[in-house]
Amino acid sequence: MFPLFKLKKSYYHVNAKSRFISSPLNVPSRTKRVWIGLIFDWLLILAMFGISQWFFLVPKPPVAYFRVDDEDYMRPEIPEIISSGVAGFLSGGVPLIILLILQVLFFWNKWDLYHMVTGHATSVAFSLVFTSLFWITVGSHLGLRPYFLTKCQPDVHRLSPDIIYYTADICTQPLKKFDFQGFPSGHASNAFAGWVFFVLYLNSKLKPWNGTAYVWKGLVLTLPLALATWVALTRVRDFRHFPFQIILGSLIGIASAILSYRLNFVVFGWFLGPGDGNDHIPARYQYLAAKKDVPNANGTGKREVEEVTQAHNPAATQMV
């Protein structure tokens, strides 16, 4: 009767060549039904973008309780330094555009291009969906913004010495759903999701840890992180977020980027490669290399076969 899904005989074989990709949940198979798997990936990515947008616009967060004498919520309401639209382009569009330019100039390879774009989109999608999920679940409890009471303008005639905590019903000015969605910071999560993936991708290509001692490689890898940090910290400067909201948003973005990169590029070792080995190899070549008939399996051309060979020969892929 069990299991309902019959495993291949080689699943637990320690010497099986396909041990790196073998899984009872590899459906659809990326070796037999390539395009179905790729389409399925993008349907999920687009679904995550759609769900996050729905979370942002539709569901109401839980009722918020606050003290009207809480000075933390009495910051002034000033114009934001970076709007949501600009932040989205700066964190999602700009790194992708730069990566596409670098791909055309230096790394041109169709599977590398595919996994680069897919990984970047997945990173941003993961970040958005989890950030927006927190907005509608705990956002009102941890997500009131520093200017909340300034915008709320509580009705002093309804205050009572017997009541400590109030709800938004006491406000004399209209509040938007956005005012209750401060936890975690969407600017921070998106900034780190986009730029950390950017850094991980370049880290694998530049090979900064191979002893070449090029200072410019360090700058290339750290400046994007400084930019992401600046985007996040502007939300503290314009009183849109508290520091803990920024920190949690940043961690969501970093985790999304690491997970997305790990899903799309071959990394032999603990979770992420050291940046001096084979962690630049697109995941597609892992599937090709696991098949005995690599040259004929998926219409693989000579160029792809050579790259699969190089993928398993670190000496052939060292980049200065």
Automatic annotation (TrEMBL):
Annotated Gene Ontology cellular components are: membrane
Q: Which GO terms describe its biological process?
A: phospholipid dephosphorylation; phospholipid metabolic process
Q: Which SMART domains match?
A: acidPPc
Instruction: Describe the location of the Phosphatidic acid phosphatase type 2/haloperoxidase domain by residue ranges.
Output: 124-261
* Gene3D superfamilies reported for this sequence: Phosphatidic acid phosphatase type 2/haloperoxidase
Question: Which keywords annotate this record?
Answer: Membrane, Transmembrane, Transmembrane helix
Q: What is its main location?
A: membrane
What the record says about family reads: Belongs to the PA-phosphatase related phosphoesterase family.
Q: State the name under which the record lists this protein.
A: 2042_t:CDS:1
